[in-house]
Each structure stands twice: as structure tokens, then as C-alpha cells.
Amino acid sequence: MIVLGAEELKLAEYTLKELFPESLKVYGSLFNINRGKPHNLEVIADSWPDFKVIICKPRQQSQQGPRDREGDFNIHHIYSKDKESLQKLLGVCGVINWRRFTLLAGLDIKHVDAVKEHACCNGTPTKTEAIMFVLMLQDASHLMQLQSDVTGRVVPLTPAHAELINSTWKYGGDRSSFNSVLSYISNYPSLCVLGEEGRPVSWLLLYQHSALGLLYTLPEYRHRGYARLLVTTMARRLLDDGRPVYCFVEEGNTLSYRLFTSLGFRHKSDHRAVWFQLNPR
């Protein structure tokens, strides 16, 4: 097990860019780390420089400092070239705490069995929370032409909007999730459509791992094309900045799947990302 330093992280980002879509979540995390964004992650690899596995895992959070959802859920991001390499690294002491609640968020579905085998050996109960399509946009050719009368009301979110965003987030509603939302708004691109009273009525953010997320429109403002407008505007800006443009859409979420695929987002037919839980929360 090797803990990556600043120079290794830069090289790892460069290498992972050639391994999309499987590497997207780890790549997105390293993209932000390498540009000085605040984080609480330790990044480890099985070997260097010819790594086959990279894991981003939270450092222990201070009891006095602000807590966030990533730390509370002990969220790990994993990229592995093959099942055997992942099995070997998971067997190293300290890589995974098999007694603590852990959420492996975005685990390659092909590698779930590798985790299950170690969990079984350690007496760790497991649960599959969700299976997601990994949808990526590589060019802007399918994006809509923007309407000028609406785009004038598309602006970045501000920290003052964090409470509203947190209150409507599927995984929000508490102080830890509020701190995560505040961090997303403060450190990464975000957009919203302002209503007549200057209050956000639809919005889109980026997670710490660079995926599009928290897309939401207040019920009374739906069916006006705001979500499509926000995704289009954000995607163009991210592509111009050289950022990855991707999102996770849960299997069965037909509306979101249709929205993103209509804008040119595509997924690899045999690739899915699994949100996989170790131990009850």
C-alpha cells in the first residue's frame, strides 16, 4: 500500500484520464485535489508507478471541526483495473475498516464480488444500496441552443442558498449534509435559475468528485425546461475548462436517464457503478 503525495497525484490524474469511464470518480476527485480544492481524503495505490488500484478514503474527521456527509458515511471511491488486484489490496491491514460503516460509492459492478469475499471472511454484513448508469458527455454537439430570455436568470449559487438546497436534497436535511452542500457551492461550479423574487427555483451543483448532482426544480416550476438549460450551460462551461462532464443516474430513473441521454450523455453498455454498504449505519 502506497500513500500518494503531490507529484504522484498529478501523474495518477494523467493516467486515469485514459481509463474512462471506469476511472471517472477517482479521476474527478484527483482533478480537484490537484487544483488545491479543500478535501479530507487520503489517496492510496497498490503499487507505483504501475498501479492497478487507487482508493480515495476519508481521513479521520476531527470531533471539533465541521462534519460533512462524506466523512459521516465514510465514503470511499475505488478504481481497479481488475478484480484480483483489488482483492489483494483489500487484504492489506488498514485499507478498509471492516468493523465500521463504510459506503463504497461508485464501485465497479464487476468488482462487487471481490469486496463481498473479504466482507464474508471478516464477518461484515453488506448491502447494495443502488446501481447506477455512469453517463458521460465528451463533446457539446448534442447540447441545446440556449434561449436568451431565460439564460439571463442563470447565475451561480451562493452560500446563502445552502439551506434551501439541503432541505430539498434526497440525502440532505441534517447538519452534515448542509456542510457538504456549503462546500460544493463554495468550491465548485454551480448554477441556478432565479425566479421572479430573486430566489433559486432550479439548480445544479458539482460533487467533490466532479460529477453533476443535486439537480432539482421546485415542483411549481417544473416542465419549463430549466433542468435541460442548467445541464447544457454547466456542461459547456466544464468542457471549456477541461473538466470531466459526467453524472450517475440510478437504474429505473427514466426521467433523468432520458434528459441526459437526449443531451448526448452516453454510458458503456457493460459498466455500472454500485453504491455498496459495509455494516449497518
From TrEMBL:
Gene3D superfamilies: 3.40.630.30. One of its GO terms (molecular function) is glycine N-acyltransferase activity. Keywords: Acyltransferase, Transferase. Its EC number is 2.3.1.-. One of its GO terms (cellular component) is mitochondrion. Residues 152-281 form the N-acetyltransferase domain. It comes from the Eukaryota. It is an enzyme of class 2 (transferase). The keyword Acyltransferase applies. The keyword Acyltransferase applies. It holds the Pfam family Gly_acyl_tr_C. CDD domains: NAT_SF. Belongs to the glycine N-acyltransferase family. This is Glycine N-acyltransferase-like protein. It comes from Albula goreensis.
